[in-house]
Amino acid sequence: MLIETPHGPARAHRHSAERPRAALVLGHGAGGGVAAPDLVAVTAAAVEDGISVALVEQPYRVAGRRSAAPARQLDAAWIAVVGALFGRADAGGGDAPFAGLPLIAGGRSSGARVACRTAAATDAAGVLCLAFPLQPGSRAGKDEPPPSRLPELEAVTVPVLVVQGARDRFGMPPAAPGRTVVEVRGDHALRGDRAAVVAAVRGWLTELL
Questions:
Q1: Does the CA dihedral 195-198-200-203 come out positive or negative?
Q2: Beta-bridge mates of residue 106
Q3: CATH number of the domain at 2-136+148-208, out of 3.30.360.10, 3.40.50.1820, 3.30.230.70, 3.40.1060.10?
Q4: Do residues 117 and 35 lie in contact, with contact meaning Cβ atoms separated by under 8 Å?
Q5: pLDDT at 3 over 60
Q6: What residues form the membrane-spanning segments (predicted)?
Q7: What's the count of helices (H) and strands (E) in the chain, helices before strands?
Q8: Over the stretch 41-50, which tens digit does the pLDDT of each residue have?
Q9: CA 101/CA 5 separation, integer angstroms
């Protein structure tokens, strides 16, 4: 499903549950795509549990570019995609396959950050973060470390699940009221224990819904 956004068309790969009770919308990492193993595994589990899923390709990926767009463009495109999928008033006409369903927003890495920053604007009921990149990598020629991205997590006012690899080079976010953090084997790719990733997501979604 191609969806027009303020920064070019995005693509939503839809996976529909037979009788959906909610919809999970997931974004990809900055340099990756929607075929990331953790996204694929979580999608299959969610559909099996009665939750429809859309895996969203940001416009820069649809256009064939590898370098991620600025955060403000990612956020604006994401809000437009959610509006189209759920039939929000400001999204115009057309097919709205998730109209009337609760939204769980999320993604891996950069996609998780987008979901956090836009949770209020999209009226998300919860946010799922796979491999949240808490601490940016050091930049050449800079003496001070870049600022933590923890404020993006802390700004979310709905329940959050963070599934993080124990050896993630971007750090381990802390748990907090309303924010569950599950540590699994592996690194930022979350390939070390896919079953543990799926189990964490399934348990959280069951409680959330």
A1: negative
A2: 26, 128
A3: 3.40.50.1820
A4: no
A5: yes
A6: none
A7: 7, 8
A8: 999 999 999 9
A9: 22
